[in-house]
Write a structure and sequence with these properties.
Length: 213
């Protein structure tokens, strides 16, 4: 049951992340191969780094499903291009779903092989966010995780909610669902109320002069 839940979560997360990457590649007028590559990197980049750090077999090398799912995502974007590519909120929705589900996967895979919750939280954030970092770097965009947008912070809140749900006796599945709901909920609130983290701005020359006086 747990393995089935994990696999289904990973496939859904892969679809969401791949569509977000392919959709963004389409706005940059990439060709089909380029768009597929961006989608695959977005979907598998975070999990690949996670598995390397955990010293376990890299997940997408164990089955062809993930390559096929990414190809299906490319076809989906091509067929529904007018709807998926022209609306900015579509990227936000799929990116948030992928972020949430991959964070859950990172946590659960780490806990399953005996790592403590703090390590699992780090792996959850890496799994959720690193694919997006690679995507943005490849298309020459400033990585979303480094902007004032609430991104990795949402993952951290999801990790905390996962732990709290476990402390209250929630099942394996409900812990994952709680984590995903919290992350997606925070991302929706971020969009709805234009929330953001403070930026680390440089000191202005006039402020520097005042300090010297």
């Amino acid at each position: 049951m747990e393995e089935t839940f994990l696999f289904v979560t990973e496939v859904i997360g892969t679809v969401a992340a791949a569509i977000s990457g392919i959709r963004l590649a389409a706005t940059k007028r990439f060709d089909w191969f380029g768009a597929y590559t961006i989608g695959l990197v977005t979907a598998c980049g975070g999990g690949t780094l996670r598995d390397v750090l955990l010293d376990i077999p890299v997940f997408w090398m164990q089955t062809w499903w993930y390559l096929a799912v990414t190809a299906l995502s490319l076809v989906t974007v091509m067929v529904f291009r007018s709807f998926l590519v022209s609306r900015d909120r579509i990227l936000f929705i799929f990116d948030s779903i992928g972020l949430a589900l991959f964070c859950v996967i990172g946590i659960q895979k780490s806990l399953a092989i005996g790592y403590p919750m703090w390590v699992a939280s780090c792996m959850g954030i890496i799994t959720g966010a690193f694919g997006g970092v690679l995507r943005d770097l490849l298309i020459n965009e400033e990585p979303l995780i480094f902007r004032k947008d609430i991104y990795a912070t949402a993952c951290l809140a999801g990790c905390i909610s996962y732990w709290l749900a476990g402390e209250m006796g929630a099942s394996y599945m409900w812990q994952g669902l709680t984590c995903a709901i919290v992350i997606i909920g925070i991302r929706i609130l971020t969009l709805r109320y234009n929330l953001s983290l403070p930026t680390l701005a440089p000191v202005k020359p006039e402020e520097l002069n005042k300090r010297h006086h």
